[in-house]
Fold these 2 entries.
Entry 1:
Amino acid sequence: MEKTPIQFFISLIIVLGRVVICHTEISRSDFPDGFFFGTSTSAYQACVLTVLSLVSRWIEGAVSEGGKGVNNWDVFTHIQGNIASGDNGDVADNHYHVYKDDVEMMHSLGVNSYRFSISWARILPRGRFGDINPYGIEFYNNLIDELLLKGIAPFATLNHFDIPQELEERYGSWLSSLIQDDFAYFAEICFRSFGDRVKYWMTINEPNVYVKFGYLKGQYPPGRCSSPFGNCTYGDSETEPIIATHNLILSHLKASSIYKIRYQPKQGGYIGIALNCPMYIPMTDTEMDRQAAKRAMAFDVAWYLDPLMLGDYPSEVRNCLGNQLPKFSKAEMNMLKDSLDFIGVNHYITLYAKDCIHSACDLGGSHAIEGFVYTSGERNGIPIGERTGISRFFVVPDGLEKIIGYLKARYNNKPMFVTENGISSLDQTTEDSKRIEYHKSYLAALAQAIREGADVRGYFVWSLMDNFEWIYGYSMRFGLHHVDYHTMKRTPRLSAIWYKNFLTNDIQTDQSVSKNPTKDHNFHVTKTNATLSSSF
Ligand code: GAL
């Protein structure tokens, strides 16, 4: 039910009162100087503009507004049945047209950073098989300049699930090693065009989630899978995830090497990857379930980060997949170890892990590709934390502290950013006290991890505003700002007001939102043979 302005004002006063009380619990001064506080979005979810009628004939090289080419999500969402609600990202939040207002909205929140993604098909409508789209370059130049004007550091992701559809049709995208050169080509255009101002790059967003949903379960494009993992026309869930993972890792490597050799020395920025980092804890206090939790962590996290940090796939994954797992060459191994300056941690999930090697798992988890682990948010019918809009996302703030501890221990305390963290709901209102509690508790857990010595340098709320939430369409809302999809009006939720207070209520805040945020970092960059790498 809509609130009258007076009712809204009264609830605002109540929440602000609570915020004042809670301010002693967690405040900005619990975090180090120069810490980045921001919000995240991605291109397809917030920005896209695709002319519907052109999608069906994309093969003729159709482009949409601003010269953008058709991408994999444009095509996938227009196939009936792929997105239950029938929604698509054709217009999304219309951010493309109102980016200046959106930057002002961030400025008024008091954030000093913003994580967004660059639409590959807007820069290269046909990948490397066509021209660079000058309007795409212009759009991102304008966005970046506007952010810097407002003292907001741009954190750019090169690939957040969307690729030019041409690459899917030509060679099967991530299933082909050809994609590595396409991605490197795109990345270099971005470094060359924007790297004088963008100092924080993430090559790929959540390759682990993309592989799971694109090639294991078939719920994201290209919608490939096999039974019993999903119901698809094409695909092989037991082998394709392994191939796609390998190509994603080597694509990261190519882009990162180009940055480190050709751009980092003169541009002085940093390059990382953003991984979905769930936390798994043993279902029971038995050695079998402790091992299962270890395997679950390895399959979700270390499968990607071990190569990028330590040069090879983890033994936990190799033990399950054996020779199916491809091998890196010696040269690749050496380069891989030096391919990350920081780890982007997207954290939403903490689940129980149950062993499926020694016990039967009827509900899933009995295959090698799953690491012989069954994962669940419930134990004996009791949920691990409060439920949220998405069934496997529970509120477990400790999970953030634990995953940061895991990464710190396994990767020698590499610098980290929490590049996504947030809570969804299906409800339309702007009164989201649950979201406020969520962020407060996760920030408190993060502050604790930092006190224990973890090198975490930033926290980005997912999301600045409601947007297209993949298979859930527009029904699932993650925003600090509510979006009315008819009028595109953004309205701050109570959580936005809370975040603003959190960010601006103490003196440090105003200093840390400097006019030149990219100078605030304190990575120590050391020269190695051919590349630069950060240490601490
Ligand atoms: C992440 C993804 C985001 C957003 C978020 C909330 O996996 O990177 O794009 O959808 O989940 O579900």
Note: The two ends are 52 Å apart (CA to CA).
Entry 2:
Amino acid sequence: MAAEAEEIRGIGHSVRRKEDDRFIRGAGNYIDDIHLPGMLHMAILRSPFAHAKLNSVDGSRAQALEGVIAVVTGELMAQHNLAWMPTLSGDTEAVLVTDKVRFQGQEVAAVIATDPYIAKDALELIDVDYEPLGVVISPQQAAAADAPLIRDEKEGQTDNHIYHWESGDKEATDAAFAQADKVVSLDTWYPRSHPAPLETCGCVADINPATGQATIYMTSQAPQLIRTVFALVAGLPEEKIRIVSPDIGGGFGNKVPVYPGYVIATAASLLLGHPVKWIEDRTENLISTGFARDFWMHGEMALKEDGTMTGLRVSLDADEGAFHADAQPSKLKVGLFHVVSGSYDLPAAHVTADGYYTNKAPGGVAYRCSFRVTEASFMIERLVQNAAYEIGMDPAEFRKKNFIEKDQFPYTSATGLTYDSGDYQAAMDLALEKVGYAQLRKEQAEAREQGRLIGIGLASFTEIVGAGPHKDYDILGIKMNDGAELRVHPTGKAHLKISSQTQGQGHETTFAQIVAEELGIQPEDIKVTHGDSDDTPYGLGTYASRSTPTVGAATAMVSRKLADKARKLAAHLLEVSEEDVELAKGRFTVKGAPDKAVTIQDVAFAAYTNFPDGMEAGLEGVAYYDPPNLTYPFGTYAVVVEVDADTGQWKVERVVAVDDCGVRINPMIVEGQIHGGLTEGFGIAAMEQITFDEEGNCIGANFLDYLLPTAWETPKFELGETVTPSPHHPIGAKGVGESATVGSPAAFVNAVIDALWPLGVRNIDMPLTSGKVWEAIQNAQAG
Ligand code: CDP
């Protein structure tokens, strides 16, 4: 029975991603790959106006086009009580307009046809009578006394204000500022950006007219949550609804909300008795689905003369668009923004936030970030750099002087968050060493003498991921806990079902590696199922880098449950008592007699063929994880740029990124996540911005106007790591997917400002296009 020890490719192994095999062969199964018998196609007519009364919609000419099956209007949806739907923030959102349009690109009508091109053509035959209204395109305009009222249909809504939210201790913060030797402030706007995943949003809704069973294939990062929302909206029993998210071509937060298109296609399938497919085109995706950021922030830091930080005050106005539709934990109106004190031991902090409706598409999605942590991280890291210069300290020294020290963890921040673990000095030291900071500063001084503008930017971010403990975290009242179900088959191969939904992060590989580590079954022998609400445990899905902190923990827990039973089975096979059995890497050995051993495969077979009296057959279980805390990944990024003062162009010379995400399950996947995150961070800092003209026309409606970095512009990345395990996570892992998008924009901007500080430039809002940089230089020089 003794078995050969084979190296188990568990935690710490750079196992190649299992899923890539089908992806690189073009054999992925995305929504648009789904074709069902009798399937019809849907196209959506969108408003050309940002704010306009809808006098009439006449679909008769469209209906007459050959191949058109139906024209769906708001009126028709209203007849079925489906013209409005709840949002994940507890607001309401129009599915199809009945009264007035509230943003450009809003859904006005839909055509169902036998062919997608006929459906699109028919849109042009729908006659709509609009009456344009005054437009609001910023929180400042929204707050004006004479601003047009956007949500006039909401009872009791008399202005465009949505919420006011506060965190921290106002009195203690006021006292800190009253006693400060110096106060430094910064106003900055984190512009509206878009997650712009490779695959746009879409669905195939299939309601079986015979059984009433609804199967909806959908680009969703949270199929279980969406099923519950659909059950609530449609009044259908949950067991009659199956949401399937097949392969997802990137989500980045864009695929968390419920979009009107999903609801219209489902209603159409119900009414017509045919499956209905809806796939957005790129422009629809960019103008009408989940934007991110759009925060107008004011920050102030109180300091002692010696550079000690004593207080932080931040206020912000959030542009939420026409409907408050983002998914934030319901108690936290601006998500986890109160992590804004960052990596610093700030004794007092106070944060206020106000949300406003504007005539823009609903936004605020967690674009590769944990709710609003990106905006917070950007605010503190920009403010810290400006404060360092104003107090006359080197920005690295200033940070190090104020970091939360390693022995202060678990650390309770002034806004009430408990950071689990960290070693900020170590990450900073490694980044400085890798980039050659001291030498770079010398080179920078020499270059300045020659008239060259070199800039060195740092960001020492602290993240907060893995929402979250049931006491404080829910979406629409549903607690943010996640599950994993594991069955080991008689042959010792296994099937893991998880409540997260991968969108390219490699869950089919890494979650198998967690089981491999715990039970000793090789990852390639473990099938991982996700994304099917009928075939996975309940959970709130994948966004905000929560999969590893929550589902990763549930996976370790269920594996340990099975290991406990497996140990009993091994004891039975080895004819010793359970206490004498040890499990390591898939081998159960007898203490003191290591040659006496059975493998997990022997044990699995026995679970179905040779189990002791009184024991249940089988080797399977389920675990739900309620995190005791979130995890706090961190790191230091260093960016070196050279700015051309004549053109405003800036070139990235170096990017050094030191990340600490606790224990790394798959180092190669972690590095891939960091590369992707840095690329997106660079894109946001340098070129991405959705703009609107004064009439509310969305300018960034295609990839010529909304610029994404290509391989041509993207700089080279040099990575480093420190490992500070999370003390409460079963395998010590923290999330990592979004860290680099959260941490890096400030490092890029800080580098450009570092180059331009001697010229008098104090701030440039992202994206730092060459035109804006040039203008800032001109303005600074003009005085
Ligand atoms: O929720 P999401 O998958 O977007 O983010 P994540 O939990 O940070 O995980 C991203 C990918 O990196 C997954 O495949 C994780 O299992 C992997 N990862 C890892 O190997 N080690 C970590 N400490 C964190 C994540």
Note: The mean pLDDT is 96.
